[in-house]
Structure formats: C-alpha cells, structure tokens
Amino acid sequence: MMRLSVKEYDVDDVLAEVGQFGRYQTRLYIYFNVQHAILALVGLSIVFVGAEPSWKCARAEDVVVRDMSLGAAEQIETVLSDSEKCSLYEKRRCSVEVDMPSATIVAEWDLYCSEFYKVALSQSLNFVGMLFGAWFLGPLADKIGRRKVYLYSTVLFFAAAFFSSVSITYTQFAIARFFIGFGGAGCILCLYVILLEIIGPDYRAMAGVAMSAFFSVGLILLSGIAYVVPGWRLMTLIFTVLGILHLSM
After folding, report:
1. What is the pTM of this model?
2. Alpha-carbon distance values, 98 to 30, 107, 247 (Å)
3. How many CA atoms lie within 13 A of 217 on its CB side?
C-alpha cells in the first residue's frame, strides 16, 4: 500500500507561491494607510484646536501706563506681562480680547491662564482612551475577527470626532476626545495586523516601517489644513467627512 507524503504549509509558504506583495496587497496597503493618515489628522489636531491665541486685556484701569502717547491697547500691552495679564483676568479686572473668538477651544471657552491645563487634559483623556481601547479591542479582534472590530472602531472614532466638532461645552469635548482615542486604538491595531498578515515575509518589515510615513504625511497635511481653515469646529468636521468618505469606498 502506497503511503502519500503530505507537506504542511503555513501562510507565509502560501504567500511565497501566490505573490508576497502583488496588486491586491498594494491596493489594500494604500487604502488602509490613507485611513492611517486621516487618523493622524483627528488624533493630533489638538495642537491647533487647543492653541492659545494671542490675547490682550480689553480693560485694565488699575494699571499704571508708562507712555501716555500710546493708544489704550498699546499701553496695556506695553506694561503687562503674561503673568500680570493672568492675574488681572482671574481677578475679573480684565476681560479677554481676541481677533477670532471661536478660532480654538481656548478662545471659545475661555481656557486662559489657570484654565489652560484643560487643553492638555483633553489630550491626556485621548491617550487614556487609547490605553483602554488597546486593552479591550485587541483581544476582542482575536475573538470576533479584525475586520469587524476595525469597522466598529472606525465608526466610533469618526462619530466621536463629529461629536467633538459640535460640542457645546468643554466637558462634552473632553468625553469625545476619550472615545476618539478608544476607537483609534482599535483602528490602528487591526489596520496594522490585517496588512502585515497578507504581505509576504520578504516585504513585511519594510511595509510595517513604511506605515509610519503615512502617519507623518497626515501630520504634514494637518499643518496645511489648519493654516487655511479659520475655526476649530470646521477643521474637525472636515477631517470627519474625509474619514467617512474614505470608509464608504
């Protein structure tokens, strides 16, 4: 009786036969990494969304002006340091005057001086969300499938981004930032593993490192978009629409 020899194959052996980085892998690689760049736009937009605009005291009667030949605003700016402005502002002896009152969350919700820590707090909540997202969504992806978790995480990410763009209070914005981080962790984890699983071993390391380049492209685009878009709400909404359009492809 003849005994048949059976050779065992793993996924890498199959990829070596059918193609390690062909057209199919290339299409998916570009698709997912465009999403990677969009995630960078939303995740790190706090740099511009939470920027402190240049502001001055609109009223400071108790300040001694050195040069009476200057205009009122120039006199105040000449005399007051940043700490002095904050001291007057927090004692209600000085109100804030900015050119664009809704340009950033700082200007819109008066997060000046002792309240400015809330900008960093919102980004900290974003990273806390990423921590919990990685802890929960990573194992969940192993159980129910990475594709499902990727889709759910992406929907949550952009839903939270949209909610942040229409937030009425700082608290709503901070909660939205937490869920942006939570969903973003699931997106990035699943995106990374899905791509590297379908790419052959000869190209896997290069493809994994090159993914960081797409994230950097997102940061470059973030700077350009923030330069031309006047307000933080519109900018966040643009990023959200870009993500939804990409997901629908």
Report:
1. 0.83
2. 42, 7, 38
3. 12
